Amino acid sequence: MTRYIPATFLLFCLNATLLAQCPPLEPISGPASVQSCVNTYRQYTIPNSADANLVWSVIPPSMGNFQGSPTGQTISIFWYDYEPSAILCATPTNPCYDPTPVCLTVEVAPIPYVICPDHVFVCAGDAVYIPITGSPNTEFLWTCLNPAVGLPGSGSGDIAFIAANVNMFTSANILLNSWQGTCQGLNESFGVYVYPRPTISPPVPVITCGGAPVSVAFQGTPGADFLWTNDNPAIGLAASGSGNISFNAAPVTQTETAIITVTPSQDNVHILGILTCTGDPVTFTITVKPTPTVDDPPDLSVCRGEPVAVAFGGSGSAPTYAWTNSTPAIGLPASGTGNISFSAANPGASPLTATITVQATEDGCTGPPQSFAVTVKPIPSAGPQNNRAVCAGQALSVALSGTPAGTTFTWENSNPAIGLAASGSGNISFSAAPVPAAETAVITYTPVLNGCVGPPASFQITVNPLPVADPLPGIIACAGDELEAIFSGSPGSTYAWENSNTAVGLGLSGTGNINFTAANVAATQSATVTVTPTALGCAGPPMSFGITVRPRPTAVAPDSVAVCPGDTVAVTLTGSPGATLHWMNADTTVGLGPAGTGNILFVAAQVSDTVTATVTITPVAAASGCVGQPVTFPITVNKCCATTAGTLDTTAITVCGPDKTIGLPLPKGYHLEPGDTLRYILYANPNNPLGSIVQYSDTLLFHFLPDSMQLDSTYFVAVLAGPPLAGDSLLIDAAAKCFSQHKGPKVRWAKKPAMAVAVPPEAVCGDGCVDVQFDLAGTPPFEFTWHIVQNGQVLLSRDETVATGHQHTVLVCPQDFVLPATGNELVQFRVVWLTDRDCGCGD
């Protein structure tokens, strides 16, 4: 297939016409030195430039401002002093003139200036000095808009003054002027800000006792800080600090007095930072007197009825002692003075604790309180215990109890033959001795609580002997057997038993003799039966015996077997591991004997019609001799036919375009019985060949059918063998007994590749290049060849490969042409060959 895509390339060039040259321009006429502070425009001209069509400019542009349009023979300009000099240029735009600009350098004298000082922030009464600087040889004048700050209304040169003693914030604007002769510079201004100094009211003197809290709040200018110093830190206050004073007075041994000096200070925040102003200081005194103390008495713990005596001591020359008692029930009044002496009391069953608080007082100062505890413990009592009866070897624990809670005990045993020691403490825990006859002991126990001893109590412990059970041999049985166990032992004993594995068919526990049916186990199950004898409430040592139940073997019924005469029949018999599999055959006409053991192997007999034999398999366990449940399966010998469709080559086939016909070789290895034939189908669904037939053929030739088939779709070929369908000799009867089918290759009719211009080429001049973009239809990769042709001559030929995608752009450059293009004649772009992965244009 060939595609022709025309592309036209236009070549062109430009010729310029030269004009006659005009005479040169004269220099610029106008002032070359100016004063920028004179508010007037200067005029500049070039006398012989009437026809030059001048355009004027200033370098740099910020140095001058034109009056009106900057064009023509004459202009006016106002000069600025941003630079020492500027360049004024006139450029002719008439083509007959030399286009080189005519320029003039203009010197610009600057105006005077003053350097504006920063704003000034001071406290009332401060000395202020502000130097004024600026351009050389310049006079500086200033004006104060608010003399209340302490500065006169006007003056010249540097500024010096004492800030006024204001009682509120005061400010003034200072205006500055600079003069050089009659030329005045730009005005400047700055501010002077005066802040008042803070004040404080003198505090009153403070007299206090050692250890007491001291608090002094200062009164003065709102928002002020108060800085203070202390000349005697022995009072408990630091040597210096700020803000209100709050501290605990030191526990001095003699009277101490300190002088406190307080200075007010205030921070004033302004735009340049913070200004701190301080006021006049004030003083006051703080006096601390010594405070008496009490030595901390130790806590006391006594039993009810014991005497209690406490003597107080501490610091001070002759202090008095006052005390309070939180719990008068201990036998001490609620309050009193002097030393303490009383007899301990406790009306309850729990320890009773009182807190005694004592303070010393001397010279009007009361010292810190001291507290101690007096605990009066109750006398404990023992709780009653019931008499105990236990069996020999049995563990016995007796928890002794009493009141109050926390009571402990000591005890004594009248008869160690029961297995308990003659004495001990705490709860009783022991294992009863293996006595041959009953033994009884009396246990006496005494309560003790926090060192307080109460009255004793007692109880009895009796130890009885243990019964025994006669041993039994183990039992071994097969699943389903009836089992029995009869128990005997000490006279008067009863028997309780437990089973370790209920899978043998016996319950988990019971009493008396055992009778049960062994479980139908799938694997050998073993159980241990533990029998415990009981007499006089005592359980004797357990007796154990085993029960083993073996499974009956199983056989797996094989699948049904259906064969043709002469076929070798092999059936593998499976069942329980270790089992022997015996089989019996009910009909020997199939070719199998009447009985046997193990796997089955024989050759199917020739039969005139279908014969089915039932085979019964019985499993027997070789180790235990247990016989399992028999299973059966059938063996059928059919009268079979030998028609087969053979095999086809399965290599996939792809052809280009719907005009191609597919031809396949005959199948290999086919066999037909009399009356059978071969037919071939083309179908669409690989999972349902007969239900999706597109074409039926007896020649293995298939054509593309546009009405029922699609390009680039996958179809499949199969061969059928069997008798023709009644009433249609072309079709095979798929329901016939000897019908055979075999699948062959996949088949696809592929679309032929195609091409279209996506972006048409544009005209190109001289040695320029142009892109040509194509849209491709088909399956990548693509390959194609294109020519550039003019008047039958090939100017350029190229091969292209497109690995992926369906768009491709080629670059056409005239400089690559083998033969040059002629004039502006038509140039054609031709695609002469195209192929994709499956097809070429010529297929």
Describe the structure.
It is a single chain. The protein is mostly beta strands and 843 residues long. The protein contains no helices and 76 strands. The strands form 22 sheets. Strands 10, 13, 14, 16, 17 and 18 form a six-stranded mixed sheet that branches. Strands 19, 21, 22, 24, 25 and 26 form a six-stranded mixed sheet that branches. Strand 16 and strand 17 (183-184) form a beta hairpin. The chain is flat and about 150 Å long. Mean pLDDT is 88; it is low at 1-20.
Number of helices: 0
Helical content (DSSP H or I, runs of 4+): under 10%
Rounded to the nearest angstrom, the distance between the terminal CA atoms is 9 Å
Give the biggest sheet.
6 strands, mixed
- Classify the beta-strand content into a percent band: over 45%
Instruction: Please state the overall shape, judged from the principal axes of the Cα atoms.
Output: flat
Summarize model confidence as the mean pLDDT.
88
Which structural class best describes the helix and strand composition? mainly beta
Which parts are unreliable, with pLDDT below 50 for 5 consecutive residues or more? 1-20
Let me know the number of strands. 76
Radius of gyration: 65 Å
Task: Please describe the structure with a list of short key phrases separated by commas or semicolons.
mainly beta; disordered N terminus; single chain; 843 residues; 0% helix; 6-stranded mixed beta sheet; 76 strands
